[in-house]
Amino acid sequence: MYKTMPEISAGAVLYRETEREFQVIIYSRKNASQWCLPKGKIEKDETREEAAIREVKEETGLEGQIIEHLKDVYYSYADKRRKLHLNKTVHYFLMKYCQGDINTDDAGVEDVLWVDIDEAIEKVTFENEKQILRKALSVLRQY
Description:
Number of domains: 1
Mean pLDDT: 95
Largest sheet: 7 strands, mixed
CATH class: Alpha Beta
């Protein structure tokens, strides 16, 4: 029997504007064949916003400024290695690219790409991240 525990993370849709479209950052996980948005666990004494900024930097090498909160996502999964059932919350933010080059020392990251947001919607693995990207596009088109 697995013990049930909460897990809280923060992540972002990091974007930049090009002449023809908005581009966003996605990354692939090593050994998983999954394309994702940057996100990770909130550390002790860290705000959701601070965690999102830190996770983007750690997973991509890029720095951004939070524009607004997009949406919270909730899901559950089993961590068989730790024998846990995790009820996960991810707080997603819209973040504007400020500086940096793609570079990461994160052992779990295979590749990091700037792609047009429509391509990102098609490429990310999980439906909840597709929904986050659609929400981000809707917000960006209002600016």
